Amino acid sequence: MLNLTAIRTCLDGHVLFATLDCPPLNLIGPELGGDLVTLIQHLQAHKNEIRVVVFESGVPDFFSAHFDMRQTAKFDAELTRLAEGATIASLYDRISTLDQVTIAMIAGRIGGAGSEFALACDMRFASLERARFTQMEAGAGLIPGGGAAQRLPAAMGRARALEVMLSADTYPADIAERYGWINRALPDVELRQFVERLAQRIAGFPSSGIADIKRRVDELTRTPFEAVEEDLRLFELAVKLPGTQARLNMLYDRGMQTDGTVERDFGEALSRLGADA
Amino acid sequence: MLNLTAIRTCLDGHVLFATLDCPPLNLIGPELGGDLVTLIQHLQAHKNEIRVVVFESGVPDFFSAHFDMRQTAKFDAELTRLAEGATIASLYDRISTLDQVTIAMIAGRIGGAGSEFALACDMRFASLERARFTQMEAGAGLIPGGGAAQRLPAAMGRARALEVMLSADTYPADIAERYGWINRALPDVELRQFVERLAQRIAGFPSSGIADIKRRVDELTRTPFEAVEEDLRLFELAVKLPGTQARLNMLYDRGMQTDGTVERDFGEALSRLGADA
Amino acid sequence: MLNLTAIRTCLDGHVLFATLDCPPLNLIGPELGGDLVTLIQHLQAHKNEIRVVVFESGVPDFFSAHFDMRQTAKFDAELTRLAEGATIASLYDRISTLDQVTIAMIAGRIGGAGSEFALACDMRFASLERARFTQMEAGAGLIPGGGAAQRLPAAMGRARALEVMLSADTYPADIAERYGWINRALPDVELRQFVERLAQRIAGFPSSGIADIKRRVDELTRTPFEAVEEDLRLFELAVKLPGTQARLNMLYDRGMQTDGTVERDFGEALSRLGADA
Fold first, then answer.
1. In contact, C90 and C134? CB cutoff 8 Å
2. Which of C159, C165, C231 sits opposite B183 (nearest CB)?
3. Per residue in B31-43, pLDDT tens?
4. What are the chain B neighbours of C271 within 8 Å (beta carbons)?
5. Which strands make up the sheet holding C170-172, listed edge to edge?
6. Which residues contact A193 (CB under 8 A, 6 or more apart)?
7. Is the pLDDT of residue C275 over 60?
8. Contact A65/C at CB under 8 A
9. What is the reported pLDDT for A174?
10. Contacts of residue C141 in chain B, CB cutoff 8 Å?
11. For all residues of chain A together, what is the average pLDDT?
12. Could C202 and A238 be called an inter-chain contact, meaning their C-beta atoms sit closer than 8 Å?
């Protein structure tokens, strides 16, 4: 019924565990993008059976490294199943407005469009020891194009959002918590049990209250779809600049998208780039 | 002059200490509601004498457990002295826009409409050891109808507000501080002295600056009255659903509103309800 | 080329270090105000050479104590070089919307209009041991007139902003961090290296992404210039009140603006004033 290739799912009561499994980096590309479209449609058709979705990663070290910069066209093609002309902005807006409660459980590196995916979820919990956060677009001359420029200021205020996006640096989970990037950082041994208990708890409550709360909080806090589309337009303009292309090529040469060592500390990779350039 | 039955007051200089004293749970019902109307009118008539109001509890273990679900009609009747058709939304809006600076000093359990009362105050300080916070409406299939769905997202952001309201769970004071539910959690032995010093300090300053600051911050951050009224309308619709009534009856049977043990950890009571249902 | 008297500058790569050096208190007055106008014009003319500005203090113990209440006319005269009728609201708005990324590195006392200057910067980092924060205007019967009444609620929420402004008290750096007044408090021995590394890192990234990010975050979070002008109007009305004048004169008599001991803990000075008045 649920025909997915890069996401494994497991239904436990009314909680669906969706495990992103697109090794080695869980890049947001055609595989995960296509599966997310399928999953969204499945969730819309099964509101009563599935009340809460927990997104986690099946790939060691990474929740999701970032966007797959080399497969933009294929990614966009997958999204047409969502709607004609759908973009990552529409994809994440759909996730953000699902009837289901969505929880990201982050126990590895997360960056770029992967971070923006988590920001589109209702809640985020992370492993104190293993989660690392990077909104790295500025390091390549780009603005985040999938919602971070809207959702990070809302989550952590102007000053910290500017710091996080302009530094393009890697942040440990405890600072991510202090800044409001995530709800809470938990010791790795407690994370799964905490999230499972929370998910089952919410799934056990009557749907009337959950729907009312989600809708009313959305009316107050929902990130306007059009604003993310405008960020994306700026991203797409800047990506074509010769300077951006040169910088991206240097990053590809050093192992971006292919070498786990580089991706494991993208913030540091950007530092070395500056020093060598 | 101040004819109250469930609130004791004590004026120390220009600071009024208002002690909620409606045992065993300080439920927000006709007694406290009626007294709050009287107190608001007294405060409006004594702007010069009373500059700061500290709300605290005289009931062991509880600041205020939640709304008195069994006395809605009587509660509404008391509020008509505020204005024809006044609701808990109008009551809390009046508190939020008093000329006086309002401080909630929380040294016990606080939940539901009790939490919403504290959220309508200007500041909240809590005992690290004794305060416990629960916005429990979702556990009965309801949206908070007294402002939490508006004021919690403003205070702690979308993700944490959704967590707190959808989990309907009990939060200790240190997490309440990290989330922004309260200004600060203080060791129990320091709480009273801290709040008294702060209250007297503010009361000693010229009223001109205080009035300007309160008014300007209100213009930027005031929760629209109409938004809380709409939450309340949704609450009142959902409370009539058979599922909600069944769930509330189960909670009454287990001791809601009567048994301090149940009320002492409402989050846990909701867990057990789910497990048994 | 850069003809300044109260600010020393030092260009290191694309990072300009601007050291406020107007002893003994770095009051926001004609000297610093005039130099800030000159510096803003210089920065606008050198967008490519200067990408990041780090503001720090060359005065022991103080980043900037507050506004120079005795030189208002001279201060306003300096600002006319910015624009006819320019105020501290326009000055700080210009700083807030510079193309350059601005970072305040705070290793001493900061208060009043000095705090508002830091709030107009993009980011704020402070010494855990040496930084102290006071928004003290309420203690003299005044609303902050340079942006704090707008930018503090945005940075720390309604309740904490009211506390900080109404208490007019002195806050250590760790609470300033917990409240969101600053990005982060760092041990004094790490502060400079941290800020320098961050500044050079951002300055090494392509300008396209930085400009897009700053502009888009501004569209979402920029404090309306008109709102600060209205605060300033209220400040100027209240400053003329006999009560305010009496209180300011008491503060002058006790050493405000002249005695470092009084200025070192302005919060405490206001306490003693109340006790004696």
1. no
2. C159
3. 999 999 999 999 9
4. 201
5. C62-64, C109-111, C132-134, C170-172
6. none
7. no
8. no
9. 98
10. 205-209
11. 95
12. no
Distance between CA atoms of residues A94 and A89, nearest Å: 9
DSSP label at residue C137: G
Could B213 and C165 be called an inter-chain contact, meaning their C-beta atoms sit closer than 8 Å? yes
pTM of the complete model: 0.97
Say if residue C172 is preceded by a cis peptide, omega within 30 of 0: no
Summarised one tens digit per residue, pLDDT across range A81-116 is 999 999 999 999 999 999 999 999 999 999 999 999
Q: What is the torsion angle, in degrees rounded to the nearest 10, for the CA atoms of residue B151, residue A114, residue C195 and residue C261?
A: 10
CB C213 within 8 Å of CB A166:
yes
Backbone CA torsion sign across A137, A143, A145, A149: positive
pLDDT digits (tens, 9 = 90+) for B141-153: 999 999 999 999 9
The Cα of B271 is separated from the nearest Cα of chain C by a number of Å equal to: 32
- Among A137, A143, A228, most C C-beta atoms within 10 A, so best to mutate, is A143
Those residues whose C-beta lies under 8 Å from the C-beta of residue B222, and which sit 6 or more positions away, are B96, B97
Closest-CA distance, B246 to chain A, in angstroms, reads 11
Q: What residues of chain C, 173 to 192, have a C-beta less than 8 Å from chain B?
A: 175, 178
Look at residue B276 and tell me whether its pLDDT is greater than 70.
no
Dist CA C148 CA C68 (whole Å): 17
Q: Are A145 and A96 in contact (CB under 8 A)?
A: no
Name the maximum alpha-carbon separation found in chain B. Answer: 58
**3-class SS at B265?**
coil
Percent above pLDDT 70 for chain B: 98
Chain B residues close to A100, C-beta within 8 Å: none
- pLDDT of residue B275 exceeding 80, the answer is no
Instruction: Using DSSP, state whether C110 is helix, strand or coil.
Output: strand
State the Cα–Cα distance between residues B1 and B195, nearest whole angstrom. 26
- CA dist A217 and A210 (Å) reads 11
Task: State residue B260's pLDDT score.
Answer: 82
pLDDT in tens, C63-91: 999 999 999 999 999 999 999 999 999 99
**Does B13 have pLDDT greater than 80?**
yes
C94 to chain A, minimum CA–CA distance in Å?
A: 16
> Which pair of tokens denotes residue A101?
């409660």
Residue pairs between chains A and B whose CB atoms are closer than 8 Å: 108
CA of residue A34 relative to chain centroid, distance: 15
Closest Cα in chain A, distance from residue C178 (Å): 8
Cβ pair B142:A212 closer than 8 A: yes
Cα nearest neighbour of B214 on chain C: C162
pLDDT single digits (tens) C216-231 = 999 999 999 999 999 9
Cβ separation A160–C180 shorter than 8 A: yes
* Full strand arrangement of the beta sheet holding B7-12: B7-12, B15-20, B52-57, B101-106, B123-127, B184-186
With contact defined as beta carbons under 8 Å apart, do C52 and C13 qualify?
Answer: no
| Most A CBs within 10 Å, among B116, B142, B163, to test the A interface | B163
Q: pLDDT digit string (tens) for A206-238? A: 999 999 999 999 999 999 999 999 999 999 999
List, in sequence order, the alpha helices (H) in chain B. Answer: 30-45, 72-79, 88-96, 112-120, 148-167, 173-179, 188-203, 207-221, 225-239, 242-254, 260-264, 266-276
C250 at B interface, C-beta within 8 A: no
Answer yes or no: is pLDDT of A275 > 80. Answer: no
B240: exposed, middle or buried (C-beta count within 10 Å: 0-12, 13-18, 19+)?
Answer: exposed
Element (DSSP H or E) covering residue A252? helix A242-254
Nearest C-alpha of chain A: how many angstroms from C270? 30
Q: Does A166 touch chain C (CB under 8 A)?
A: yes
